[in-house]
């Protein structure tokens, strides 16, 4: 009997492509049941035969060889395999020549650019039963689904998966500028660079521009700062002389005035920093290193007498006379209490940067940073251990992380209490009660930092919990097997070998840990009032306890 | 668009604060990452921040173009050299869904009828520019010619592209076809934002209001602490991703499946008797917790929506709304008027003589405005009579006024007439669903009375795909070279950005999302000044009505 597939095949061979007599001869030879199926074939094929006839008469004989369905595409703007540029396929150079001249009338020529001709040599030749190359489509190609070559990759596709167009050039590359619109398949369409790369999202780094701008500005600032610093050093040097008794204090005061031209105090009626007018109570002062007139209000800090030894300490200057004492800033005698009046601006300009960097170094060793760094280090170690599947180490690291967490939570709890206290005092202060604020200012951001770090570690452990449990389980299973083997070997031997003791201890530890976990869960549930879930937890807890007890008994004195 | 703190924690960001908060403590040991809109206010805050830095170093990211003068200002104040990085990442807009964006913080772009609120214009411009830059697109711009707002925005965008930031737009990816930026005006389709929507995301917005991807549920009674505010994020919530565009019927089915799946998972843990069950439970505990929270979130949302729908009698109201707007035929005037009167004056009963609970004033307003819009040019219209009657029954003045404002804003004479397609007509069924290689989704679901109406956007997009958008109604800015194939036909754009001045609706976003899903040859993004609910739309117009009075 002839199967339906065979019949289909036959129909395809016979009728799909421009039917020639040779073709039908071949199929007649090949198929013995020809006559029996003639009738069926006629009814099914009649429409197709009509189309073939139509094609022969209207499309022209030179396209007869073209392997394509004559079906008219719904989307008329897509050229089918029968576009009129067909003749370019004829291999003779004459044909090519003719083609370009004929196509020039269709393609609008801009600036004398010769229209690109897309080669067709790479086209896949259709066999009788080709299928659509789009992944997951697998439709049989033919009259029903269409049969179109992707102009770019040349593979065959069904109509639906070639409803795409892009510009390509003669080298079959995507060419936005000079390409010709061509019918392509989904894959080629989506892989073209202007489509694929569009998802990057734009990002412009302005750091270089910014730094150039800043350098310009900061250069002058730095110059000014150096200048000020130089003056300060001169001061200190002179002080040194005073300290050694070579110069008198009055000489020093004269030097002060000489170093910087002081602004004329009479001209200024307002402090150049805070702009408050001078009066009997708001006195005029001169900044010793820039010479400007400022007020000396200690609460505003527009200018302040700064002890000379402090300045030397911050600038980290070692004066020649100082080496005797070998201690920075320990001025004795008349210079010990000498101060240099600096205005706020100078102070900022000279010291801010130094102080900031110093502070950051100092704070780098703060509790938070240390905890964070340890967490980070443990995390990288976990990744490493996971990479080589070193399970014991993994567990070890996790216990370390848990320890870290415990310490941290203790700290957070302390801070929690502090925060509450703070809140209550604030409330009290609002209600008018006069309560002393805590001596140590409470650092809110610090508190938030600790809390979020705690959260982070908890969530990290939670994330990794399933894996961890799995590892522990497999370990336990392994151990159990080992123990079983051992027991088989020395049946009835009451004394435990060292190895068994070790294994049991480990097991005990694991069980204890689980107990701890469940207890925590228990607490949590209690808090959330999920009493329904409490019951099974309780059961398990008792189970665990029993098992732990059993193990303890077995181990006896060797338990720890 | 909104990320959660736990998400940031995963990247080891432990402290989040605003620059406006001046009480931040000194933490000189920590580096700081800043993300800002480059506005003058923020810049001055930033300048004072870095001149007395609280943190070790600063990496500054701006979400839009930073002008040279602003950069200079910043450089001047950074004499301590604490800034290590400055960059622009173009994100001056909210990404609500995969294909939906809005401008930032616009509540009402209308300064009057067809005029911009000046601040909103700037914000809208900023958001479009940064969107184009982030997509690396230099588009052709078209706009709706009857709208001054759209044309103003379109020319501003064009100016910005050509002048201020020419360097940036030179980097735009070269495309086969230039992408299209289509700027539309809400007034050309006032119907869509007046109808009660029936798909999940739209309904959530309609009932609760989605703000920055979060929904505030704290007003509801008996809500657990964890569900006071819920986050709805397409990328993190699988169930939401799958069902955000489903209609209410489909939604309840999918929710049921979701819950069954969850039950199956948790069934084993409901009877933890052995250590083995226990271990299984512990292993999956975080996962369980997450899922259970998600289940209860969606349960809460959908049950609350259901409650509201019944409370508002939306089943019958919406059916009437939908049938009224899905044909332009005026021959049903009398029957529709009767039905409208019944609803407006609460004449309906439940069949046993007991009157139904009265409709809210808002619902009535929306019904009346739909009627007024549909029969605006019909000679036998009863709009004024209805308004008079309503006024007598102590109907709020502002809502009566709203109907008139609406007609002034989006009446027949104000709307574009796209080749005789009325907004009340269903998209012609005869046309093929396959246009130029693009598949268009449903043309209004005739089997579902609640989903009959299809936003006007659909027909506009179909015309874009056919390259048949009217050149007079949708003029280009400049004169782009149309792409023409060898056989002489025009090539439609393959990437489209739609911006609706006056607000976009989630229904339109759904339309675009479905279009994208069924077409791999098209990328379409829709956005608007803000996202409208029916109430939001009414409020916006009431606002300008007040100011114009």
UniProtKB/TrEMBL annotation, chain A:
List, alphabetically, the SMART domains matched.
FYVE (SM00064)
Q: Where is this region: Disordered?
A: 1-41, 84-111
Keywords, sorted A to Z: Metal-binding, Zinc, Zinc-finger
Question: What GO molecular function terms would the record report?
Answer: phosphatidylinositol-3-phosphate binding; zinc ion binding
State where composition is biased (Low complexity): 21-31, 84-105
Tell me the ranges covered by the FYVE-type domain, including all copies: 265-351
What name does UniProt use for this protein? FYVE-type domain-containing protein
Q: Which organism is it from?
A: Eeniella nana
From TrEMBL, chain B:
- Residues that span the membrane, as ranges: none
Annotated GO biological processes are: vesicle-mediated transport
Q: What is this protein called?
A: Vacuolar protein sorting-associated protein 45
Taxonomically, the superkingdom here is Eukaryota
Origin organism of this chain? Eeniella nana (Yeast)
- Member of which family? Belongs to the STXBP/unc-18/SEC1 family.
